[in-house]
Structure formats: C-alpha cells, structure tokens
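Ticket #169: bound-state structure for FE2/S2 (inorganic) cluster.
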Amino acid sequence: MKKELSFELNGQHTSLWVEPGRLLTDVLREDLQLTGTKVGCQVGECGACTVLVNGAAVNACLTPALSVMGQSVLTIEGVQNGDRLHPIQEAFMETAAVQCGFCTPGMVLSAKALLDANEAPSDEDIARGMSGNLCRCTGYQKIQDGVRLAADKLRAKRQDTASGEEGQL
Ligand code: FES
Ligand code: FES
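RESOLUTION: The complex was predicted; output attached.
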C-alpha cells in the first residue's frame, strides 16, 4: 500500500504517495520528472545517481525513497541559482571536465559534498572524495582540475560575501 512521502527537495517542501520498496532514483525521475539524476549501474558502483541527503552524497539507486522522509534532498536541478550556474558547474565547463555529461550531475554533487566539508582539499582529498564516481570519457585529470578550480571559485565567493558583495554558494 502506498505511503505518503514528505521531504524537502531542492529547498521546496514536497509530498507524494509512494509504494514501499521504490527507489529514490525512480521517484525522482519517473514521479517528479527530475531526470538530471542519472541511472547507470544500479548497484552502487558508478555514482551517476549521486544526490545529497542532508548534505551527504548518497547513491539514490540504493536508497529506498521512503527513507528520505523528513530529510533534505538536493539533486542537480537544485544546484544552480536561478539561471546562474553554481561555481562547481562553471569550473567543470571551464576545465573541460564534461564530455558526454552522463556522469556530470553525480560528479557535481559529490564535488559539492566534498567542498562543503573541505574548502581547500588536497589532490588526495579530491581523489578520495570523487572516488565513488566513474567517468568513461574524460580520464579523471580534468575532473580533478574542475574540482580544484571550483574550490578556488568558492573560496573567492566566500571572501566577496564576507566583504559585503553579493554571492550565493
Ligand atoms: S546508478 Fe547508482 S551507483 Fe550506478
Ligand atoms: S563525461 Fe561521459 S561519462 Fe563522464
């Protein structure tokens, strides 16, 4: 029997009826039409389905939808600010860390979880933080470059914000 799932999705209170056992990927993509979350392996190995739950990166393909009851979920659709890309998205574009783009939503969200927790990650920190996300196209160097540039951009924005200029991270 369906249960009502109420949670915060990309900053908005969201409520819908869900069959027990349905996965978060299916509810996001099929019920809510948020197809930015990709589905690759479906066994927790590729990271294409990465979303943030209460700020932590999780594989939505392994997450029962009802387990996010009352939690805060961020998908790629909620990362940018209006029509302005998030600095991580800008950095990925500027470093050519995007080719086919299939892995990119998950990469951006893993990078966000990493950079929210560590504003100046070492190369080892970046490699570890992104280790759950696979990419068939870019090799990983450009993604590493993208995350490093994103860290620089976010630090600069924080400084602008601290000195009173407009900025949202
Ligand atoms: S689709 Fe979820 S980890 Fe691959
Ligand atoms: S850009 Fe194609 S899988 Fe990563």
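RESOLUTION NOTES: The longest strand covers residues 3-9.
TICKET STATUS: resolved
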